C-alpha cells in the first residue's frame, strides 16, 4: 500500500459527485487529481461548472474550486493516466454507464462505482464492506474477462439497502431469516434534489420511486450470495417484499421491517439480537479504515428509546457512516418487527463507495 493515491471523480458536478469531493478533501490516503463531467462542463473551472447546483452545506473546497473539469466520456485514457483509480457517479443511461465503466477498467484504471449499471454483472462485486468483503475475491476473474492487469469495477449497493440489510444480514449470519416485508421512507437527496429545487415535496409524500422496489427485493440476494467459479451466485434463501416512499426529508432513509426466521421455534430473543448488533464488528472496523464507523450498528431499545432512531438525531452518527436500529419487538404476523435507518448520501452513496475503496486499497487491489 502506497502513502498516497491520486483519484478521479467521474460525474463530479452531480450531488453524489459533490459528496465525493467533501469526503475526499483532506482524506489521509487519497488526493483528488481529476474532476470529470459531461462535455458541457468540460474545460470550465469546477466552481463555474457546478455553479448554483452546489448542494452541500460546506463551501466548495479551495483545493478543487479552480480545477479544470475534464470530459468524462472523451478523456478516458488521459484521465486513466493521471490517477490510480476513479469513483464513478454519472447520470447517463444504464447501457452507456456500463460501457463507460468498462472503458476505464480496460484502460487499467480501477472503478469504484455508485451507479447501478453493473450491480447485476456476475463477476462485479457489489459490496457492503462490513457484510460481504469476501466478494472482492471475484476481481481476478473479472480482470481475466476484461483482459486487464489492474483495471476492474466494484460497486456499492443501492442506498436504501444500507438502511435495513446490514441489520438483517448480521442476524442472518447465525439465525437464517426466511422472509421479510420492508417499507422504505426515502429522503429527497436520493433523487438528487433539495427542497429548493423540488418545492413540490414540501408537505408531501410520493408512494412510488421508479425501480426502487425491484432493487430492494433483488440486490440483497447478491450481497448475501457466494462466489462459485468465476461469478457471484445470488442467494435464494431470503425473500424480501418491498414498498418504497419518497418523503419530505432532506437526508436519511428509514425502513420499517417485518421478518421471520427459517426456524421460528428456535428464534433468538430481542435481547440476543440487540446484543449481536451492538457487538458486531466487520473487516472495516478490524482494519480501522478511515471512514469505518467505530460502531457499525447503533441500538435503541424499545424500553429506553421507543421513539428512536429519528432522522435528525441518528443520521450523522459516526460521520453518517453508522446504521441505527430500534423498536425491535415481536410481531403478530411475523417473528419480529423493527425500524432501521442510515444517511443515504453518506453511508448509502458516496461514503459507502469511499469505504469500499478503502477496503480495496487496504487489500492491495489499487496497487
From TrEMBL:
Residues 6-139 form the Semialdehyde dehydrogenase NAD-binding domain. One of its GO terms (molecular function) is NAD binding. InterPro entries: ASADH-related, Asp_semi-ald_DH_pep-lack, NAD(P)-bd_dom_sf, Semialdehyde_DH_NAD-bd, Semialdhyde_DH_dimer_dom. The active site is at residues 159, 253. It comes from the Bacteria. Keywords: NADP, Oxidoreductase. Pfam families: Semialdhyde_dh, Semialdhyde_dhC. This is Aspartate-semialdehyde dehydrogenase. It comes from Hominilimicola fabiformis. The lineage of its organism: Bacteria, Bacillati, Bacillota, Clostridia, Eubacteriales.
Amino acid at each position: 500500500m502506497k502513502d498516497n493515491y491520486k483519484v478521479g471523480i467521474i460525474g463530479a458536478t452531480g450531488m453524489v459527485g459533490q459528496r465525493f469531493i467533501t469526503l475526499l478533501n483532506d482524506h489521509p490516503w487519497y488526493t483528488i487529481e481529476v474532476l470529470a463531467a459531461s462535455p458541457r462542463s468540460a474545460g470550465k473551472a469546477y466552481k463555474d461548472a457546478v455553479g448554483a447546483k452546489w448542494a452541500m452545506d460546506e463551501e466548495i473546497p479551495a483545493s478543487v474550486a479552480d480545477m479544470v473539469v475534464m470530459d468524462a466520456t472523451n478523456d478516458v485514457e488521459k484521465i486513466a493516466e493521471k490517477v490510480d483509480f476513479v469513483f464513478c457517479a454519472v447520470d447517463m443511461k444504464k447501457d452507456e454507464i456500463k460501457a463507460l465503466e468498462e472503458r476505464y477498467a480496460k484502460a487499467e484504471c480501477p472503478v469504484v462505482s455508485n451507479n447501478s449499471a453493473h450491480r447485476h454483472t456476475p463477476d462485479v462485486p457489489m459490496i457492503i464492506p462490513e457484510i460481504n468483503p469476501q466478494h472482492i475475491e471475484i476481481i481476478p476473474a473479472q480482470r481475466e474477462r476484461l483482459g486487464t492487469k489492474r483495471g476492474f469495477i466494484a460497486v456499492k449497493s443501492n442506498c436504501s439497502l444500507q438502511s435495513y440489510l446490514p441489520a438483517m444480514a448480521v442476524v442472518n449470519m447465525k439465525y437464517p431469516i426466511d422472509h421479510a416485508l420492508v417499507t422504505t421512507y426515502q429522503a429527497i437527496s436520493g433523487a438528487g434534489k433539495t427542497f429548493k429545487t423540488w418545492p413540490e415535496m414540501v408537505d408531501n409524500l410520493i408512494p412510488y420511486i421508479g425501480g426502487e422496489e425491484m432493487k430492494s427485493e433483488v440486490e440483497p440476494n447478491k450481497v448475501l450470495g457466494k462466489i462459485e467459479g468465476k461469478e457471484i451466485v445470488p442467494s435464494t434463501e431470503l425473500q424480501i417484499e418491498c414498498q418504497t416512499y419518497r418523503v419530505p426529508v432532506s437526508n436519511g432513509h428509514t425502513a420499517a421491517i417485518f421478518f421471520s426466521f427459517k426456524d421460528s421455534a428456535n428464534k433468538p430473543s430481542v435481547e440476543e439480537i440487540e446484543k449481536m448488533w451492538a457487538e458486531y464488528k466487520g473487516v472495516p472496523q478490524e482494519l480501522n479504515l478511515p471512514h469505518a464507523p467505530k460502531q457499525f450498528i447503533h441500538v435503541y431499545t424499545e424500553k429506553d428509546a421507543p421513539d428512536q432512531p429519528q432522522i435528525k438525531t441518528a443520521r450523522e452518527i459516526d460521520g453518517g457512516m453508522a446504521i441505527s436500529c430500534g423498536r425491535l419487538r415481536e410481531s403478530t404476523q411475523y417473528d419480529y418487527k423493527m425500524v432501521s435507518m442510515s444517511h443515504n448520501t453518506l453511508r448509502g452513496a458516496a461514503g459507502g463507495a469511499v469505504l469500499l475503496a478503502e477496503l480495496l486499497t487496504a487489500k492491495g487491489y489499487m496497487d
